[in-house]
Task: inverse folding
DNA sequence: GCCGGAATTTGACCGATGTCAAGTGCGGAT
DNA sequence: ATCCGCACTTGACATCGGTCAAATTCCGGC
């Protein structure tokens, strides 16, 4: 069983360049012509590995670089004035972090590793220069931001439209889909986030999330043991949570 | 009383260029150096006025241009697979429309005029060329997208965190703030959207929205008569709805 | 293998909000 | 001016999910 959200498959050599990276198709260079990938990877540094629980970016800190998770996973979250945490989303390998930072040049949320994590960083200075030169990269960045915006809006609508059980079903179906794109099992995985994180992402309480897991289990959609999940009817699960 | 969300103040001459536009500070050119404003306005066309209820953009249609509302207001919305409408947001003068379209080059939601509406359009072809040439515009577009993303995420968090009355209060406070930036009265305005639109934006039913208006009225926060709203304690209203 | 704290599950209860159903009033059309 | 339709308001009731509390399981350290 997969115990972590890891990019490298067994036996794949260490990732040294964007061209050879197992995540390339999912990452920024995914839709770039080879020449641009070349140029891009010269601007990419490798961040040093972080332990679980450490911050990848801090709310309010200047956005010095664009970060992409390479292995492990993280949660993007912020704290309201009255001290309640809201979880904006979970970041998997190949996904960018803190895009909201483009708004003001300053991150507007925290991103925290949920497990040991590696990442790549593109310093803004170099990135801006490249954006000027590479039309493909320009398009890609806009695509990324537009996609994030669309997803956020869509998710918001869904949260208000469906009940707790469906939100959890949709969350699991979404995880499954994203893991599958990374070459991991879409039916059997370990969640790296707590029930509480899931709850604060879905606008529920952790008790309700737990009950929803229970309900889905009783109804035969999945098996759960703590954070290990096995989806028994993944196609159908996507449907019960599924709306536009 | 303002009967519409209009950009032009009484006596202001017709808007013929970005430089002289009353909305300039709020719009794309707001943070651009004058030289770039020059270049930009040559790429801007004026859309022909639309009647209330007509579509500004259609979900699924290719994103041929970036549109900005010039006068009037609109709602951005989409329909789930099971036919339920979700309202992503309301667009006021100076605000861009359908930014999610950057994701796939295709709009992923409908935008419908809530009242007679005028708008500007920047065809994508010209816009892309300008983005290549103008560093300020590049930054501005990223700022716009990042801001939209941040706002969407923040709003989502708030919706799940506060009760119906607070959501409505926050919605009104937000409207008030946005109208004020446009030189309109922050305390006395006519809502261009129905209770139903508000409900579907806030993740509530129209009955609950109506009751919330009633509660806020009884508590002395505002006066309401159908769509005409008078905020009696705007500062405080921002607080009761107010979180990070 | 055992222990202790944290995460998770489960249960009981209550309140906010959705649902269904009447009213009410505003605005446009005749 | 009157009528009609639609948006909005208001009420009664059911229900989902939040809250508080307790039991149980999991996991890491010894």
Result:
């Amino acid at each position: 069983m997969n115990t972590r959200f890891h990019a490298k498959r067994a036996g794949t050599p260490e990732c040294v360049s964007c061209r050879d990276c197992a995540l390339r198709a999912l990452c920024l260079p995914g839709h770039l012509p080879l020449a641009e990938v070349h140029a891009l990877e010269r601007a990419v540094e490798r961040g040093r590995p972080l332990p679980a629980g450490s911050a990848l970016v801090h709310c309010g800190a200047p956005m010095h670089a664009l970060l992409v998770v390479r292995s492990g996973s993280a949660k993007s979250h912020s704290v309201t004035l009255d001290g309640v945490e809201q979880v904006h989303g979970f970041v998997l390998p190949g996904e960018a972090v803190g895009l909201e930072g483009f708004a003001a040049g300053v991150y507007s949320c925290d991103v925290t590793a949920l497990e040991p994590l590696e990442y790549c960083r593109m310093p803004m200075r170099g990135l801006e220069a490249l954006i000027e030169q590479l039309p493909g990269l320009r398009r890609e960045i806009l695509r990324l931001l537009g996609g994030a915006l669309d997803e956020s809006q869509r998710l918001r609508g869904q949260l208000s439209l469906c009940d707790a059980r469906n939100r959890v079903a949709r969350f699991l179906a979404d995880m499954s889909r994203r893991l599958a794109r990374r070459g991991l099992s879409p039916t059997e995985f370990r969640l790296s986030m707590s029930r509480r994180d899931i709850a604060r992402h879905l606008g529920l309480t952790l008790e309700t999330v737990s009950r929803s897991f229970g309900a889905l289990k009783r109804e035969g959609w999945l098996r759960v043991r703590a954070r290990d999940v096995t989806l028994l009817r993944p196609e159908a699960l996507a449907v019960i949570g599924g709306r536009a």
In short: Residues 163-164, 204-205, 207-208, 211, 225-226 of chain A lie near DNA strand D (CB under 10 Å from a C1'). The first strand of chain A starts at residue 45 and ends at 46. Confidence is low (pLDDT under 50) at residues 6-15 of chain A. The two ends of chain A are 31 Å apart (CA to CA).
